[in-house]
Design brief:
Blueprint: H1 4-22, E1 45-47, E2 60-62, E3 68-70, E4 78-84, H2 89-105, E5 110-117, H3 121-130, E6 137-140, E7 159-163, E8 169-173, H4 179-190
Parallel strand pairs: 4-5, 5-6
Antiparallel strand pairs: 1-8, 2-3, 4-7, 7-8
Helix pairs in contact: 2-4
Keywords: Cytochrome c-type biogenesis, Disulfide bond, Redox-active center, Signal, Signal-anchor, Transmembrane
Domain Thioredoxin: 44-191
Organism: Spirilliplanes yamanashiensis
C-alpha cells in the first residue's frame, strides 16, 4: 500500500516535471506554443463552485526585487496568480491583457501576483519593465510555488489561477487568458456573498 506521504511526494514530483516539460525547447511564438504540453485530460479552463474549492499549501518566497512575500498577506482579497516566464511567447501575448485587467479591478479589492518560473532574475525584471507590469511577481526559478497548488496543478505556462477572498482556488485557466475572461471571472468571484463565498 502506498503511504499518503509517498503519494504526496509523487504528486509533487509530477507537477514539477510537468512544469519543466511545459517550458522546454524553443517553441514557436504563437499562443498555441504555451499550451502544447497541457497534461492529458486537464481542462483548459475550469470554474470551481464554493463547495469544491481547495486551499493551496502555504506560499512564501521572494519577489523579483528581493522583498520577502507571503500569500497569506493577501487573504481577504480576490487574488489572481499568473505563472509566466520571459522565455514564454504566449506570456508575451497575454501580459497586456493581465495588466489591463489589473488596472480595471485594482480598486475592487483585487490583487494580482505573478509567479516567474525557469528564468533569471535579470530577464524576468526586464520583461516586467518592458511590459510595464504594475503588480509584483515571485521569483521562482525552480517552480516550487506550483507544488502548493497540487490539487489544481498549473501544469503549463502560462497558467492563471484566481483565489476567492478565503484563499481558495475558484478558477483556473491553463491557457492564454484574455482581459474579458479575467474581468468576468474576477467580478463573479468578488461579488460572492460572505467572506467564504457561501
Amino acid at each position: 500500500m502506498i503511504s499518503s506521504r509517498s503519494r504526496g511526494a509523487c504528486t509533487a514530483a509530477a507537477i514539477a516535471a510537468a512544469l519543466a516539460l511545459a517550458g522546454c525547447g524553443d517553441a514557436a511564438p504563437t499562443p498555441a506554443a504555451g499550451t502544447a504540453d497541457l497534461a492529458a485530460g486537464a481542462p483548459v479552463s475550469q470554474l470551481y463552485p464554493p463547495p469544491e474549492r481547495t486551499t493551496p499549501q502555504p506560499v512564501t518566497g521572494e519577489l523579483l526585487d528581493g522583498t520577502p512575500f507571503d500569500l497569506l498577506s493577501l487573504r481577504g482579497k480576490v487574488v489572481v496568480v499568473n505563472w509566466w516566464g520571459s522565455w514564454c511567447a504566449p506570456c508575451r501575448v497575454e501580459t497586456p491583457d493581465l495588466v489591463a485587467a489589473y488596472e480595471a479591478t485594482e480598486e475592487e479589492g483585487v490583487a494580482f501576483l505573478g509567479v516567474n518560473v525557469r528564468d533569471t532574475r535579470d530577464a524576468a525584471t526586464s520583461f516586467s519593465t518592458d511590459f510595464r507590469v504594475p503588480y509584483p511577481s515571485v521569483f521562482d526559478p525552480a517552480g516550487r510555488v506550483a507544488l502548493a497548488f497540487r490539487d489544481v496543478p498549473p501544469t503549463v505556462v502560462p497558467t492563471t489561477v484566481i483565489l476567492d477572498r478565503s484563499g481558495r482556488v475558484a478558477t483556473a485557466f491553463r491557457k492564454v487568458v484574455t482581459q474579458d475572461e479575467l474581468e468576468s471571472a474576477i467580478r463573479g468571484i468578488a461579488t460572492e456573498s460572505g467572506p467564504t463565498g457561501g
